[in-house]
Design a protein that fits this description.
The complex is a heterodimer of chains A (111) and B (112). With 111 residues, chain A is an all-beta fold. Chain A is built from no helices and eleven strands. Chain A starts with a strand and ends with a strand. With 112 residues, chain B is mostly beta strands. Classes of the chains: A mainly beta (111), B mainly beta (112).
Chain lengths: 111, 112
């Protein structure tokens, strides 16, 4: 079975802190994605990566950056956390054109 | 802006009934279509994928695709309370990155 893991289920940070969210997949998938999910707004794509060291902005990249140094690992970085970044963050991976497999999510609260 | 539209619901059906969930999309060149189920507090999980016009059945679930009318639907037969969840429609565009566009989801409630 495909397994996507995320470094934390719950995280509480303070405004201005640098936050790292890590995602690891074990199926050698090319594509990896970071989303945030907020009530009433659905899943919104932050960034995605289609290969090691390759990344593209999604719909809401402002305030975020990403890193993909190894194929299995995709990190989301909040350079300076703000309260409006309080959300559920979901990582996913896929082969090209195929279904996505999601991690369990990280619920981030920024105080 | 490519869009995927779903009725947010909630759609309420009695146990044992057929639940019908619908999704429309705006990009005519879309080729891959997916239905995900998301329980409250959990992450989405794939139920069905469909790539060509017509019906695809898997157990109690049937996905229907009509590319000419640009809609995809999910039928759940013999609905159970455990089917109560939010159902997300996702549509991939062809191209080098295969980025999916998700609808906002339809909340389904199956009451005993």
């Amino acid at each position: 079975d495909v397994k996507v893991t995320q470094s934390s289920r719950y995280l509480v940070k303070r405004t201005g802190e640098k936050v790292f969210l890590e995602c690891v997949q074990d199926m050698d998938h090319e594509n990896m994605f970071w989303y945030r999910q907020d009530p009433g707004l659905g899943l919104r794509l932050i960034y995605f990566s289609y290969d090691v060291k390759m990344k593209e902005k999604g719909d809401i990249p402002e305030g975020y950056s990403v890193s993909r140094e190894k194929k299995e690992r995709f990190s989301l970085i909040l350079e300076s956390a703000s309260t409006n970044q309080t959300s559920m963050y979901l990582c996913a991976s896929s082969e090209r054109g195929n279904e996505q497999f999601f991690g369990p999510g990280t619920r981030l609260t920024v105080l | 802006q490519k869009e995927v539209e779903q009725n947010s619901g909630p759609l309420s059906v009695p146990e044992g009934a057929i639940a019908s969930l619908n999704c429309t999309y705006s990009d005519r060149v879309s080729q891959s279509f997916f239905w995900y189920r998301q329980y409250s507090g959990k992450s989405p999980e794939l139920i069905m994928s469909i790539y060509s016009n017509g019906d695809k059945e898997d157990g109690r679930f049937t996905a229907q695709l009509n590319k000419a009318s640009q809609y995809v639907s999910l039928l759940i037969r013999d609905s159970q309370p455990s089917d109560s969840a939010t159902y997300l429609c996702a549509v991939n565009r062809p191209g080098g990155s295969y980025i999916p566009t998700f609808g906002r989801g339809t909340s389904l409630i199956v009451h005993p």
